[in-house]
Write a structure and sequence with these properties.
Elements: H1 9-28, H2 37-56, H3 60-77, H4 85-106, H5 115-127, E1 147-155, H6 162-173, E2 177-185, E3 190-198, H7 203-210, E4 219-225, H8 261-272, H9 280-304, H10 313-336, E5 338-340, H11 342-345, H12 348-359, E6 363-368, E7 373-375, H13 376-397, H14 401-406, E8 413-422, E9 425-432, H15 439-448, H16 459-463, H17 486-496, E10 500-506, E11 510-518, E12 523-531, E13 534-539, E14 543-547, E15 554-557, E16 560-565, E17 568-574, H18 575-578, E18 590-596, E19 599-605, E20 607-615, H19 619-622, E21 629-634, E22 640-644, H20 646-666
Parallel strand pairs: 6-8, 13-22, 17-19
Antiparallel strand pairs: 1-3, 1-4, 2-3, 5-7, 8-9, 9-11, 10-11, 12-13, 12-20, 14-18, 15-16, 16-17, 18-19, 21-22
Helix pairs in contact: 1-2, 1-4, 2-3, 3-5, 4-5, 9-10, 12-13, 13-17
């Protein structure tokens, strides 16, 4: 009976993708003059692991390709082959081909039948070049690979016949050399397979490969020894090779008694490992349930407010405890979705390397704050904007080596990508030491496109023009830039996440682009306001201040009401009129100043109700998209409150102000 591995298929594809990602990350950081031995070993192990999984799942073409690939890598790590840049390029392309092949397999689509073969031929062509091969100085003694004693307890209902055991042994034999093996019937329900394995595979990787074949709790691995110049095993030893085995009295777990300190560290990490793979949909469901619990707790607290506390001391104490526990649970559940931003940063070295080569530039990439954590949903949506910012900095910002030297700079440009927490937000900054933005070129392009860009504008306002759809200062369209799409994508995606983009630049010194994002899209710190008997939520991160203006601070400029705040005139937006709740032009006594991307507007509100954390609900999913509204939440009294889109409100106010100003000038 064949082994059914279909339930492990998803884990295989996920882990294979991780191995390819590790392969790529290690390759782009290798120093060709003195390659790090541990990095070379890790690259070899990544390909070896993919081979083991591919063989176990019957993906023969991939298993054969990775076998040849790891053979070449093995020669490199043993110093029998000199590593060169063309070889690294091919290794990276091999990773791309494997990724594409695995993607097709995962989607149950036929992979390109020729891609792996073409890449295999390309690898062999480079490796067989005489200049790349180096002969060893002297014959080296063979080292005995780590020697393990492995036992696997199996249910006879799962393995009722001998051929299935033979298949299992064949799969395990692909991990190394089996010195001997035996099968013993333990009882009516189970049997035990024991074997001695000679392998270069580390114990954690060995266990990982075995878990593709049998459940983890059925495996027991014990490290035996490692020796130099080990003799070949004698045929007659097969009869007695298992004298070191002792009968197992219970279902085994991964338990080891190492023979060395290094082994102890590796094996202890296995014992201490406590991570599990959980489908994201299950975590999302858990977050939604916690969100409902937060709302229910708020409703109970509000209802309890109508009961005199003196009459219900136990109720008040219970509600207080419920609130604390609910907040702790909410924080714990949200933490499950938090991932380090290294998941996004890790693709940047490859991107930088390839693009710099294509453009003939020298670039040193520095990444800081890779351990900074943010919500998985934010990580997935920030990848494209960050990629565009890096591409833009490499293409438009950093000069070629000759121009940099002529300007008194080092030939290699420096690109720094940094992530950090600031309050309840994450800040990602992309900084280059290139030529900086050219104000006159941007203004000229803006006028060519019919955009409003005044000579009296501050630099910060001019820089914002590059986020306009179709805006590009590139002289010609290439496969890298020139279509005016990239920066527009940055602006759209960041604002869709409730974030903002800031820019600063200095001619000849470089440019810095900063993205500010909320840590999570599930919870929002908001200010609750009242407008014409309706309740709305404003994102607290965009609230600059609230005020009660004096009559003399309100002016009308070109038909637009503005308020003077610390010497600056800010356009006023009537929420009641915007949402057709009232048609009164009178300015209310309370204004809330919203700020986004350096621009501000003052919202007319009737009441400031308070500040609170709210659980975001998608209005588009449950109803439809509404301009000026980014979502909704449920209040403690059960009513639905709309969460206002700060970016839309600020942009609308300034657009209206400019239109009125333009019409007045035309008149």
């Amino acid at each position: 009976m064949a082994l059914d591995l279909s339930r492990f298929a998803k884990a295989f594809f996920e882990e294979a993708a991780e191995h390819i990602h590790a392969l790529e990350s290690l390759l782009v950081t290798l120093d060709l003059r003195a390659p790090d031995a541990e990095s070379l070993n890790a690259i070899f192990r990544a390909v070896h692991s993919i081979k083991g999984g591919a063989a176990a799942f019957g993906h023969t073409a991939l298993a054969e390709f990775t076998h040849d690939f790891e053979t070449i890598l093995d020669r490199v790590r043993k110093g029998k082959l000199t590593l060169t840049k063309p070889m690294v390029d091919l290794f990276l392309k091999s990773g791309d081909v494997m990724r594409s092949h695995l993607g097709a397999l995962e989607q149950e689509a036929p992979p390109d039948p020729h891609a792996l073969g073409i890449m295999k031929d390309a690898l062999n062509d480079v490796v067989e070049q005489p200049a790349l091969a180096t002969a060893p100085a002297a014959e080296e003694p063979e080292f005995l690979s780590p020697h393990y004693r492995i036992s696997i307890r199996l249910a006879t209902t799962q393995y009722p016949d001998e051929p299935s055991i033979a298949e299992l042994i064949a799969d395990i034999g692909g991990m190394g050399e089996i010195l001997a093996h035996e099968t013993e019937q333990i009882d009516d329900a189970s049997l035990e397979l024991r074997f001695a394995l000679l392998t270069e595979t580390e114990v954690d990787e060995l266990k990982e490969s075995l878990e593709f074949l049998v459940p983890a709790e059925a495996i027991d691995i014990v490290f035996i020894d490692s020796a130099i110049a080990a003799p070949a095993p004698q045929a007659e030893e097969d009869e007695t090779a298992f004298e070191f085995f002792e009968p197992l009295e219970a279902a085994p777990v991964v338990a080891t008694v190492p023979a060395s300190a290094d082994s102890e560290v590796a094996l202890q990490s296995l014992v201490d490992a406590s991570s599990i793979r959980v489908n994201v949909a299950k975590i999302d469901q858990l977050i939604n349930l916690v969100g409902e619990l937060v709302i229910a707790e708020s409703m109970l607290a509000q209802a309890a407010g109508f009961i005199p506390q003196a009459d219900q001391p136990r109720l008040a104490a219970g509600l207080s405890q419920l609130e604390r526990n609910t907040r702790d649970l909410q924080d714990a559940v949200l933490a499950i979705r938090m991932l380090p931003i290294s998941f996004v940063f890790s693709r940047l070295p490859r991107l930088t390397r390839d693009l710099a080569d294509r453009l003939g530039k020298q670039i040193d990439l520095e990444m800081l704050g890779e351990d900074t954590e943010l919500d998985k949903s934010v990580i997935e949506k920030i990848a494209d904007p960050l990629t565009h910012l890096v591409r833009n900095a490499i293409d438009h910002g950093i000069e070629t080596a000759d121009r940099r030297v002529a300007a008194g700079k080092p030939p290699a440009g420096r690109l720094t990508v940094r992530a950090a927490h600031q309050g309840g937000s994450i800040v990602i900054t992309v900084t280059d030491d290139g030529a900086g933005l050219n104000r006159e070129r941007i203004l000229a392009k803006a006028r060519q496109l019919g955009l409003d860009g005044g000579d009296t504008w501050a630099d910060e306002e001019i820089w914002q023009l590059i986020f306009t759809p179709g805006f590009s200062t590139a002289a010609e369209v290439t496969d890298v830039s020139g279509r005016g799409v990239g920066m527009d994508v940055v602006w759209q995606n960041v604002h869709a996440l409730g974030g903002k983009v800031e820019m600063s630049s200095m001619a000849g010194r470089g440019t810095s682009m900063t993205i500010r994002l909320p840590l999570t899209l599930a919870i929002l710190d908001g200010m609750t306001i009242g407008v014409a008997n309706e309740t709305y939520i404003l994102p607290l991160a965009n609230v600059s201040q609230s005020l009660q203006p004096a009559a003399e601070d309100i002016k009308t400029v070109n038909g637009q009401k503005v308020v003077s705040v610390r010497g600056e005139y800010i356009p006023i937006t009537s929420l009641a009129r915007l949402f057709q709740l009232a048609d009164n032009d009178a300015v209310s006594e309370i204004l809330v100043v919203l700020e986004m991307d350096g621009r501000r507007t003052a919202l007319q509100v009737d009441a400031l109700i308070g500040q609170q954390q709210v659980v975001l609900k998608s209005l588009e999913t449950n109803f439809r998209k509404v301009k000026g509204v980014s979502g909704a939440t449920i209040l403690g009294d059960g009513r639905v409150a709309l969460i206002l889109d700060a970016g839309f409100l600020v942009s609308m106010a300034h657009t209206a102000q400019r239109e009125k100003s333009g019409s007045m000038h035309a008149a």
